[in-house]
Amino acid sequence: MKKETILVIGANGQIGTALLPRLQNTYGFGNVIATDVRQTGTEEAIFELLDATNALALNDIVQRRGITQIYHLAAVLSAKGETDPLWAWNLNMQTLLNVLEAGRTFNLHKVFVPSSIAAFGEHAPKQETPQSSVLDPATVYGISKVAAENWSVYYHKRYGLDVRSLRYPGVISYQSMPGGGTTDYAVAIYHEAVQGHDFECFLAADTRLPMIYMDDALRATLELMEAPADNITVRTSYNLAGMSFTPAELTASIQRHFPDFKVTYAPDFRQAIADSWPQSIDDSVAKKDWGWKPDFDLPKMTFEMINHLNELYHVTV
Ligand code: VAH
Fold it and tell me: Which positions fall inside the NAD-dependent epimerase/dehydratase domain (predicted)?
C-alpha cells in the first residue's frame, strides 16, 4: 500500500471528531493531521490550527506535512447557513476550491468532499430519491453542495483529480454535538432522554427524513475511499441511505428504554428546510459500485446511542 498522509479539515466537527480515530487506525497515528479553526478537539491527534479559506495556509500544511489525501469536513450546515447566506456560501465554496486546487497542484492521491441530501429540493421525488434527480436545493448549504459536486466532476475530468463524495443523510452520533443542522434534533433528543429531561422538537412529529448512524456513515466513507478507482462511476456524489424515520418514530424507539420520556413539537424555520428534502433515498448505485450496505436500523441505533450517552452522563454520578 502507498504510504498515505491524511489531512482532515474540520476535524473538530461532528463527522471529523468521529472519523479521526478511524483514520488513525487505518493509516497510523503519525500519518493523520487534524486541523480546525478551533483548538477544542477531544480526540488525541497531531493537530494544527487551519482556516481553510486561506489557500496559502492550506498549501503550507500540505507541502510541509507531505499530505497525500484530504478529507474536507468543514462546512456551514443548512440551518446556520440561512442566518447569513453570503457568509455561508463564501466559506463553503472558498474552502472547497482551495482544497481542489491543492489536490491538483500537489497531485494528491485522493480527496473526499462530502455532499448531502440537502442537495435535493422540491422537484426531486420524495420517496426513494434516485441518484440522478433534479437538484434544486432550498438552502444556501444545499446550493453550495450542488456547486461542490459539479466542481468535483470538473477537477476529475480536467485534471484527473480523484475526488470522491457521499450525499450524507442526517448523521446521528454520540461523540460530539452537531452544529447548525436541520437534523440536529435527532441527536439532541437522545441527550435529553438520557438525562431524564423532556424534549421540545423543532420539527413536526410526522417529518420523515433520511438518517444514518455515525458508524455506518464512517464505514461508507472509508469503503468509498478505499474502493478501486475503476469502480467509481459517480463523480458528483453518491446517494447514501441508512434509514428514514420521523420524530414520532424516534421518540417511540427511545420510549422503549425510557417509558416516561415526553416530547412536545414546536416546528420552527427548520420545518420548511426539512419539507424541501427527500423522505427516503435510493442508494442502489452505491450498492452496485462499491458494495454499500447499511448495518444500523432505528432500534439498533437507539440501543447504541443510549448506552454510550449513559456512560457520558452517568459516569460522573
Ligand atoms: C443538516 N446535518 O442538517 C446536516 C445534513 C441532511 C442534513 O446535511 O444540515
Answer: 6-239
